[in-house]
């Protein structure tokens, strides 16, 4: 249909298979009905692309037109996975609406496919962000990206078309963007260790709180006295966590269900 609207040669050939039934529409009728709708969609995509600094300088109208023809807007529900770490990279993404969670794979673990990939939660990306460029030497993605709690709408472009975009300034800006947003591997490992500690502490805290509530509801009698030691602390593998639990969750007073 783009060939009809722009009065250009078609960019593809269609071969009918046996049993195919086709409806033929005159070019004049198609243009009369659909021309303005397609033009409106194309103009909106061009404006969206030009909103990114990567493309806004010195890109010709024909360059932007070619990218707009490839751009596809897609909506994802909350929790939907846009792509996972160690999948073949096929698209790059431009965030139009909403936010996404990004979990970066540690590079050493990403190379060993026999082991589960260790992921580090990074800062959420919001409107105007772009992602999907980071891959390893095998063209496999280094991130798992998930739609945020309110869902997300993104623009998708085929990775191959964008990386073969013949514009030197674009590629220079892309390199600058990737360099500026790179997190050193050492920093990622520190973040991973801290996140693991936080998860362990949360699991232990939830277990202690759950035990307190369960026993209070069952006995309806004082459970702890000032300076007392929770039973679950006595055999704890994490005494420093148990200490934090006593300080934060068990105030120095008798606890009674009223």
Structural class per helix/strand content? alpha+beta
Weakly predicted, low-confidence segments: 233-238, 252-258
Q: What is the CA-CA span between the terminal residues?
A: 72 Å
Count up the helices: 10
Number of strands: 6
Task: Characterize the structure shown.
The protein is α+β, with helices and mostly antiparallel strands and 258 residues long. Helix content is 45%, strand content 17%. The chain is built from ten helices and six strands; from the N terminus they run H-H-H-H-E-E-E-H-E-E-E-H-H-H-H-H. Strands 1, 2, 3, 4, 5 and 6 form a six-stranded antiparallel beta sheet that branches. Helix 2 packs across helix 4 and helix 8 packs across helix 10. The longest helix has 35 residues. It is elongated, with a radius of gyration of 28 Å. It starts with a helix and ends in a 9-residue tail after the last helix. The C terminus is likely disordered.
Please render the helix and strand layout as text.
Blueprint: H1 2-6, H2 27-50, H3 53-56, H4 61-70, E1 72-76, E2 81-83, E3 91-105, H5 107-111, E4 119-121, E5 130-131, E6 143-158, H6 159-163, H7 168-180, H8 185-219, H9 231-234, H10 239-249
Antiparallel strand pairs: 1-6, 2-6, 3-4, 3-5, 3-6
Helix pairs in contact: 2-4, 8-10
Write a short abstract of this structure.
The chain is 45% helix and 17% strand.
Considering the chains and any ligands shown, give keywords for the structure.
alpha+beta, 10 helices, 45% helix, 258 residues, six-stranded antiparallel sheet
